Amino acid sequence: MEFSHIGLITQTPQTDEVFIPATRVWVTNFTKHPFRVEWLRFEEDSPVTGPVRTQPHVAFRVDSLDAAAAGLPVLLEPFEPLEGMRVGFFQSLDGAVIELMEYETDPFV
User: Fold this and answer.
1) What whole-number distance in Å separates Cα of residue 85 and Cα of residue 27?
2) pTM for this prediction
3) How many C-alpha atoms does 88 have within 13 Å on its Cβ side?
């Protein structure tokens, strides 16, 4: 497991944000932020609810999303926001929102 980024919720449009149709959320490229921050701006009709939509998250790159998520409560089922990238949102046993990211190919290279 390798630290990737933190995700913060905003209502303000950000420079170079990209729309993710599966979740109806605008996101920024955390690899271009000096502190590895990803800004998330949800459309009103986004299907995302609960802690993923209201709380910050910490994200980790993992070799196997399924193995890393074993035993963790699921907040948002795994999906493919970008080609070659599979992510899911989970809750740590102490309540933190965790994003786990498995790359078939690195979409940020």
Assistant:
1) 15
2) 0.90
3) 18
